[in-house]
Amino acid sequence: MASHGFWSLGGDNAGANTGSQSPSTPRAWCQAAAQKLSGGIGSKLCALLNVGEVEKPAEPGAKQPPQTAAGTCGCNKSCNCTKAAVVFSDLYSTDLLPATDGDTKTMTFLQEVVDILLAYIVESFDRETKVIDFHYPNELLQMNNWELQDEPATLDDILISCRATLKYAIKTAHPRYFNQLSTGLDMVGLAADWLTSTANTNMFTYEVAPVFVLLEYVTLKKMREIIGWTDGRGDGIFSPGGAISNMYAMLLARFKMFPEVKEKGMSSVPRLVAFTSEHSHFSIKKGAAALGIGTESVICIKADESILVALVQGFVPFFVSATAGTTVYGAFDPLIAISDICKKYNIWMHVDGAWGGSLLMSRRHRWKLDGVERANSVTWNPHKMMSVPLQCSALLVREEGLMQNCNQMHACYLFQQDKHYDLSYDTGDKALQCGRHVDIFKLWLMWRAKGTIGFEAQIDKCLELSEYLYNKIKDREGYEMVFDGKPQHTNVCFWYLPPGIRYMEDKEERKKHLHKVAPVIKARMMEYGTTMVSYQPQGDKVNFFRMVISNPAATFEDIDFLIEEIERLGQDL
User: Residues bearing N6-(pyridoxal phosphate)lysine (predicted)?
Assistant: First the structure.
């Protein structure tokens, strides 16, 4: 019978040894693992899981488990582990590879690091542990010695630093972490990230990253096919986040209209203006500032009359950025109507799908991006709704060769023209960066593991959870929705009104008090460590909660918990 995954070890016969514990809990799992895994690995994980107990309230008079002596393996029995022979307090980084006879010490040290990581991973999915062990910055600075020293630290100190770093890290994989658009932790993606760091290469040429370059080629082509471009033709690149992908698009649009700007600069072109939707991401203006176009040349529009006004005033419209999934509301611009306007005025159409682009993977929800195939470029961040480990952002471009012409500088020490292979696979000259991190392998390996249908199911589940939350609170006493109608994405925006302000007759006084509610509840969430949800004002609207769901580990029970926790933490306000 096929395994059901990481927790399956505790599924069949662990119940007899775990009392009333569910086999899906880390404690029950590790007890089963201790019996089934060879080499003492299961026992070591059980011992390591005790690290998480410091976050749980101790029972009065309870005995503390015995501490493992320094330098032992933690198996709690005699074994042949090499750990017992290695004393990290006597070792330094210079004792590891490439040091002579450093292989055993290196393997033992890295195994210790892996044990720390495995314990943290298991804790992160345990709902009994905190999402965050919050301390104020000055407190955290004083609790550990974070300063850099002239003298080297021992490997024992290095391991202590690793534990301390994870102890105070936010558990973004926790099922009740809803604070950002990027949440969750995929095990295959994590493994791919480890492999990528082990390979430690650069994406600029095929000769130093042959497999990774080919995987980027294959994956970008697949993503272009999903967008709807014929045979997946076009171009693209993985960049350091959606903001950079959006700036790439603006750069290409300007070069397409005025190629002379590459050599002669902005003085050679007329006054350019870009248009974007009212609630677009701030990176559009930031990109305009970085490219010398200026933030005042970015116009927020609702209709094509703004383009006509710009033309009359002597400006040259060159770029329209439509948003597929706005950051706060999760709204989708009408892409077909926008594409008609862009075609009418011959303007580059970009779709910022950093947040909403992944809905293209869902047959149930991809209609929200109807018209995306008519765009000249698309930003798509798999590190958000697809839960690929950070960072993983793609810019997809419909016109092949444009990126190369726009950005290439012919650096002869990297891009020699007499190499013995197809030079089109030397992708570095089409990028703004020289050194470029390998971001592709995480996405590619996860795609292989899940298949397109696996990503589709994951995305559909998150949208189902958001609809569940919306339906539970839309008519619930003490809640008001920020906007009418069911959300288009997983963003659910709402106010919680504590009993003390629900019936205030003075609207301004009520508004003033309501503005303070979300920040106080959020602070209490962090201090208790139970959950995390973002909040913000928007326009003339006072602070409200913006709940987003992208974590595949979240369940209906976690949504119920969130509602109850907001009410518990805010009832006295």
Answer: 384
